[in-house]
């Protein structure tokens, strides 16, 4: 548990101050270095510093081992990709502490990769051949149909010509026979090419062929109804079978080039019908053989992948762990004797015993003759910030860390954020019906958190699951504030007692408070339900929620300033107590603290005083009489006193602090040039590594300007921040009015039609509007506004947030990372 080492002003909370840290140095013999770092990684409580930052990754001691682990990690990623494609799920390892030899893993991974690559290559070749044969078979079918129809047409035409020749004149016959004999000697044999072309390119393909050969081709295309797998790309595509007839070698070469450009696959084809039938039989036989061979290959591949899946998690964890160990070993510096490694890092004070035990166990288990040396170093570096959180407080801590990580041991806003954040949310979201809906949704996440934490959720669901305890607290506070506002889906219920008022006449709902008579005791808890539906409901709730917002805002800003006092006391800074905390408290409370007191007095006395008038003329005309706006005796004198104190507190904040800091700096560094060098070599070395801050130049002008900005920011912020809390009133009113509109204009209106169908439609619209607008959009809106009030209005009073997180070397997070 965190102890307060700055005077004991703060309660000993885990979250109030970050864990005390110290810089430790470990000197480890080379033979036990690997095991030592492994044990420290299991412990997860040491953040190592990189002592070799001046060296490139290739110049470091264990560069070869990291390269070796990187190669094994590549093979494991390859196996994971192959298993994912094949639908093989790696088996979870029950015992993850089984020690495996890295050399055996490397050999086994190499053998399996070589076998798998060979299987994939063979399967790819067989699949390509299979796809080519499928295309070839389609070409044989479609082109065969074309040639068969062409033969039938040619035979029919030949028989017609022969019939016509019998009827011709015998005198002309010799001339015709002579002419035909001449034509026969001059005939040119046509060549042809067959293949498949992608359907989307078929028209362009035909047009380019026509233009390239100047129309000296004849092309026929046939559409393939089903998609085919392209042998080259391996993807499904829609294709057409084409047959191109040409004359001459020159035309053939042009057609071949165009086919290549369009990705058209060409296949041989014979005019002879007998050869076509023989080729079809051969192709069909080879297809059936290939299909059997490919199936056997896939079965063998799946068996191999299942074998890999059995050991995949063990190998994966082992390689990741080894890679992380060697990365960490590279951060350690090699001793001049090259017999031991020297490492430095941050560790919590409470973990010193555990770290030493891990070092001792590593020395024993590695049979080292020399043990490791553990020592604490002195340094002026800023230590990292480490809070011990649990599953409940983690989400609240992350809300604060999103603004900025706390400086080492400064007051942590999360202690109060656990309560104030859900409370401010609930002030804007006050409806106990909506709160119950949120609670039920959150209870589902909480009750099934073990199962859900091991599943992959979507981005939005992952975010909601991570903040389930924040939403749980928000729902509880929403039920509480909803009971105060007396709203259940905008409907008031007399839960705790009957209303204290009764209507004087029938027109009571149209009247103001004059139409109400108090007949019972005041409603015990929350807003009296009688206000609902009256003309004075909105003015009454407006006044109530606006004043309540100011009271809550001033209270939280005062809490922020009080936290700055605890910081000043913890770090023993009297300057910040007297010249920051005191004037800030005086300024804020003399103005807005006074306004808060006036609000409470007005509530208690029932006065009709105008508080706007009082506050405005407190500055503009402080000497004027208050008249009917006076709330208590001697109010004018009190206001003058407060105004004077507020004006005095501004130079009180601005002027003394820079001069006092300058004087302290001069006193601290007086005669520094002749100071004795009484530090050890180790501490001097640590200060050099950390970039010691003890000899920085004191820039008075910079300090003064910074203090001026800080003063102006606080003075103006006191006004703007108080006004900013009015968002509590605005969003609460908007939520209430939206809920009322959905109830009256959707649900009641649908009820008034006396029609079951319209009523069902109205109920569905009401449910979707309530869930979509009020439970999702309004929840997000109120969450963001509550977040802004904490980050800006509350935390800027005391929280610097310029620290850095404690990031220890650990194996627990490595499983979720790819590298």
TrEMBL record:
InterPro entries: V-ATPase_116kDa_su, V-type_ATPase_116kDa_su_euka. The chain crosses the membrane at residues 423-447, 468-485, 548-566, 578-601, 637-655, 756-777. One of its GO terms (molecular function) is proton-transporting ATPase activity, rotational mechanism. It comes from the Eukaryota. Residues 102-129 form a coiled coil. It is found in: Membrane. GO terms for cellular component: vacuolar proton-transporting V-type ATPase, V0 domain. Keywords: Coiled coil, Hydrogen ion transport, Ion transport, Membrane, Transmembrane, Transmembrane helix, Transport. It is a multi-pass membrane protein. The keyword Zinc-finger does not apply. GO terms for biological process: vacuolar acidification. PANTHER family: V-TYPE PROTON ATPASE SUBUNIT A2, VACUOLAR PROTON ATPASES. Essential component of the vacuolar proton pump (V-ATPase), a multimeric enzyme that catalyzes the translocation of protons across the membranes. Required for assembly and activity of the V-ATPase. Belongs to the V-ATPase 116 kDa subunit family. This is V-type proton ATPase subunit a. The lineage of its organism: Eukaryota, Viridiplantae, Streptophyta, Embryophyta, Tracheophyta.
């Amino acid at each position: 548990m965190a102890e307060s080492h700055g005077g004991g002003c703060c309660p000993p909370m885990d979250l109030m101050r970050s864990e005390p840290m110290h810089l430790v140095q470990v000197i480890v013999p080379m033979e036990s270095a690997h095991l030592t770092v492994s044990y420290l990684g299991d412990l997860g409580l040491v953040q190592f510093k990189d002592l070799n930052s001046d060296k490139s990754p290739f110049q470091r001691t264990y560069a070869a081992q990291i390269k070796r682990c990187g190669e094994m990690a590549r093979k494991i990623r390859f196996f994971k990709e192959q298993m994912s494609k094949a639908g093989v799920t790696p088996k979870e390892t029950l015992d993850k502490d089984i020690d495996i030899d890295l050399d055996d893993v490397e050999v086994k991974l190499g053998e399996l990769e070589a076998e798998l690559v060979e299987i994939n290559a063979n399967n790819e070749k067989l699949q390509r051949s299979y796809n080519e044969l499928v295309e070839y078979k389609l070409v044989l079918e479609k082109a065969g149909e074309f040639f068969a129809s062409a033969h039938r047409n040619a035979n029919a035409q030949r028989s017609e010509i022969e019939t016509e020749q019998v009827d011709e004149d015998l005198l002309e016959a010799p001339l015709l026979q002579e002419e035909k004999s001449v034509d026969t000697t001059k005939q040119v044999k046509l060549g042809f090419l067959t293949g498949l072309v992608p359907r989307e390119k078929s028209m362009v393909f035909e047009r380019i062929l026509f233009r390239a050969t100047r129309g000296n081709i004849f092309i026929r295309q046939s559409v393939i109804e089903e998609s085919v797998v392209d042998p080259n790309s391996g993807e499904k595509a829609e294709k057409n079978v084409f047959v191109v007839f040409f004359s001459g070698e020159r035309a053939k070469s042009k057609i071949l080039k165009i086919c290549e450009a369009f990705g058209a696959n060409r296949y041989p084809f014979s005019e002879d019908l007998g050869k076509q039938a023989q080729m079809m039989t051969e192709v069909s036989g080879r297809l059936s053989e290939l299909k059997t061979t490919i199936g056997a290959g896939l079965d063998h591949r799946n068996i191999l992948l299942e074998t890999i899946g059995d050991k995949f998690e063990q190998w994966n964890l082992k390689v990741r762990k080894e890679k992380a160990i060697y990365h960490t070993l590279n951060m350690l510096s090699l001793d001049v004797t090259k017999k031991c490694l020297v490492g430095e890092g941050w560790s919590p004070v409470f973990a010193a015993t555990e770290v030493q035990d891990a070092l001792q166990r590593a020395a024993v288990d590695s049979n080292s003759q020399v043990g490791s040396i553990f020592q604490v170093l002195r340094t002026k570096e800023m230590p990292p910030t480490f809070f011990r959180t649990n599953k409940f407080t983690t989400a609240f801590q992350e809300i604060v860390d999103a603004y900025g990580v706390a400086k080492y041991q400064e007051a942590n806003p999360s202690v109060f954020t656990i309560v104030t954040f859900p409370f401010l949310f609930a002030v804007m979201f006050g409806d106990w019906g909506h709160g119950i809906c949120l609670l039920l949704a959150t209870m589902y996440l909480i009750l099934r958190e073990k199962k859900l934490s091991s599943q992959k959720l979507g981005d939005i669901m992952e975010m909601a699951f991570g903040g389930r305890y924040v939403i749980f607290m928000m729902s509880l506070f929403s039920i509480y504030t909803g009971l105060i506002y007396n709203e259940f889906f905008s409907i008031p219920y007399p839960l705790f007692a009957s209303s204290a008022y009764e209507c004087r006449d029938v027109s009571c709902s149209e009247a103001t408070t004059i139409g109400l008579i108090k007949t019972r005791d005041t409603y015990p808890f929350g807003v009296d339900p009688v206000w609902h539906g009256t003309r004075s409901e909105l003015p009454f709730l407006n006044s109530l929620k606006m004043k309540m917002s100011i009271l809550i805002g001033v209270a939280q800003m005062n809490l922020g300033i009080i936290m700055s006092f605890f910081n000043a006391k913890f770090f023993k800074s009297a300057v910040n107590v007297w010249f920051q905390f005191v004037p800030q408290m005086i300024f804020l409370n003399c103005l807005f603290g006074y306004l808060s007191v006036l609000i409470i007095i007005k509530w208690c006395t029932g006065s009709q005083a105008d508080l706007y008038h009082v506050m405005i003329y407190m500055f503009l005309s402080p000497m004027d009489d208050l008249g009917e706006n006076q709330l208590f005796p001697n109010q004018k004198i009190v206001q003058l006193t407060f105004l004077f104190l507020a004006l005095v507190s501004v130079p009180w904040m601005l002027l003394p602090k820079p001069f006092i800091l300058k004087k302290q700096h001069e006193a601290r560094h007086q005669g520094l040039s002749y100071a004795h060098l009484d530090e050890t070599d180790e501490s001097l070395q640590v200060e050099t590594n950390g970039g010691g801050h003890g000899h920085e130049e004191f820039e008075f002008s910079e300090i003064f300007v910074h203090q001026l900005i800080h003063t102006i920011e606080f003075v103006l912020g006191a006004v703007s921040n108080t006004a900013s809390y009015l968002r509590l009133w605005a969003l609460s009113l908007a939520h209430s009015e939206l809920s009322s509109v959905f109830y009256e204009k959707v649900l009641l209106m649908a009820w008034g039609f006396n029609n079951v169908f319209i009523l069902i439609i109205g109920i569905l619209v009401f449910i979707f509007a309530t869930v979509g607008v009020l439970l999702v959009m309004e929840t997000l809106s109120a969450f963001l506004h509550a977040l802004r009030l904490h980050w800006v209005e509350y935390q800027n009073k005391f929280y610097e947030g310029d620290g850095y997180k404690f990031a220890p070397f650990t194996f627990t997070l490595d499983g979720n990372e790819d590298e």
